[in-house]
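In this supplementary section we document a worked example of the pipeline. Step one takes a protein sequence of length 155 as its only input; no multiple sequence alignment statistics are reported here. Step two produces a three-dimensional model, which step three serialises into structure tokens for compact storage. The input and output of this example are shown verbatim.
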Amino acid sequence: QQVFYNDEINGSSGPFPPKVGQKTFYTVLWQLSNASNDFSKVRVKAILPVGTNWEDRARANGQQPLPSFKTVSREVVWDLGSLPSGIGGQFPKYQTWFLVSFTPSSNNVGQPISLTKDASLEGEDSFTKQSILVRVSDVTTNDLADFPGGGSVVE
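The serialised model returned by step three reads:
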């Protein structure tokens, strides 16, 4: 999981570092590769913390489905179904991008903003039938791939 302020497709919009009362947009990128057995029942998901908004702009490479947002649980879910062996090696990585935004308040000054929490990939190894669960670190505005460490809110 990577998050960008200035993404090559979406560009950048809003102040960075984030500024009180002004909306800033961020692009979340999920990339999958698989050098193991085929996987089935594959789902990637993450929580958008309260205040981080789903902007309903998403894209995926190839014929992959788009991620969706579940408003009540605040989960972004990418239901892939299968993840074949060789993805990211002899075949292109599976990738999806989606746009989120945040408008900081004065309570956020001096702190980074939490953009995604509890991200994980779950599925099943199609050969062994073993469940797979991979957890990924939470991402804040200090963890951006293109501006690491510079994401604390300013007035």
